[in-house]
Design goal:
Layout lengths: L5 H16 L2 E5 L3 H13 L3 E6 L23 H12 L4 E6 L7 H4 L6 E4 L4 H14 L2 E5 L11 E5 L7 H12 L6 E5 L33 H18 L4
Parallel strand pairs: 1-2, 1-4, 2-3, 4-5, 5-7
Antiparallel strand pairs: 6-7
């Protein structure tokens, strides 16, 4: 392991590497945000990564998701992630869990001996359930807010959810968490005003036919969601090392 992580070792030493190897991080979601966080955790030296996702890789994932390639299309994301991890850091134990997170199964899927949870889920109900579960068990958690319809990754910040603005998802989460008695949550959120996404229909008047605005499916880029994932992984690793400020 020391050979693969020699450059990291120069910054955190053997004690830091050992501390990371003894850590377990549970990653919820392997999309644009979660996939990048997964790669950073595996390359970063975390010993055990529990990756939970129920989706398969599709062609629309290619523009932003680290695990998405032409060769992985059709594969379960957890399997694509596991195979990628084996090519990045063989000392990291990846536990793939192909399951859809719900409020009912949260306690079964998130191990109670987890040191940190990264929430990169899209579904509000599952996000809320994961946060409530972690808070009740004393497990540290960091949650991703919306990264769709954004173009400037420099506007992404680590903050408490009460400091968020310009994020429709964060607004909903703040309201719902307050109802549940959760008054503080570490998040990565963007301060950029969301763009209005456009929708194109490939079958009507050619590939560039502009239709009505699409509100349900956000637009995305190759750089905003992954940067959010990298930020989340950096917070987790620094906190595991005891050096987060």
């Amino acid at each position: 392991m020391k050979q693969e992580l020699q450059r990291t070792r120069m910054l955190i030493g053997d004690e830091g590497l050992d501390r990371l190897m003894d850590s377990k991080v549970c990653l919820l979601g392997l999309g644009g945000v979660g996939g990048a966080a997964f790669e950073a955790l595996v390359r970063g030296g975390v010993g055990i990564v529990v990756a939970i996702d129920n989706d398969i890789v599709t062609i629309s994932n290619l523009n932003r998701q680290t695990i998405a390639t032409y060769s992985t299309i059709g594969k379960p994301k957890v399997i694509a992630a596991l195979e990628r991890a084996e090519d990045m850091n063989r000392h990291c134990q990846v536990i793939p869990v192909e399951a859809f997170l719900t409020p009912e199964n949260m306690g079964e899927l998130i191990p109670e001996d987890t040191d940190y949870v990264i929430d990169a889920i899209d579904t509000v109900s599952a996000k809320l359930a994961a946060i409530e579960f972690c808070k009740s068990k004393g497990i540290r958690i960091i949650s991703a807010m919306g990264t769709g319809n954004k173009l400037d990754p420099s506007m992404l910040k680590v903050m408490d959810i009460n400091e968020t603005s310009m994020c429709p998802l964060a607004k909903v989460m703040r309201r719902e968490l307050k109802k549940r008695g959760v008054t503080s949550l570490k998040v990565v959120a963007s301060l950029e005003k969301p763009m209005e996404p456009r929708s194109f229909d490939e079958d009507l008047d050619g590939p560039s036919s502009l239709l009505k605005s699409k509100r349900r499916t956000p637009g995305s880029t190759s750089f905003v969601p992954p940067v959010a994932g990298m930020l989340m992984a950096s917070v987790v690793i620094r906190e595991l090392l005891g050096i987060y400020e």
